[in-house]
Amino acid sequence: MAQLNESTTLGNKTLRNRNFNFGIDSGTANTYVVTLNPPVTAYTAGMMIYFIATNPNSGASTVAVDGLTAVPMKKAVSTDLASGDILDNQIICCIYDGTIFQLI
Questions:
Q1: Can you give the residue range of the structural domain that contains 52?
Q2: What is the pTM of this model?
Q3: Looking at residue 37, what is its pLDDT?
């Protein structure tokens, strides 16, 4: 098995290790802003991010990663978030499906 450092290429896929696409939100309620280290330059289908939300949501929400365009976050594939789906200091995991981030 290959040992993973900052990133390891297996076939045509690059696996990122150690940082797990993790950041701390610097946005406001319903408008989450995440900076990753190392940063990403584009959203790609299957991209998973984790972040600590610094504000609870009060309804439909978006997330912008590394200065990219804000993308809607949904639950149950296509349902807008409801008030309280994201709590203050909650660790959020979501996956970009090519169009939106799905809350896991």
A1: 7-103
A2: 0.81
A3: 86
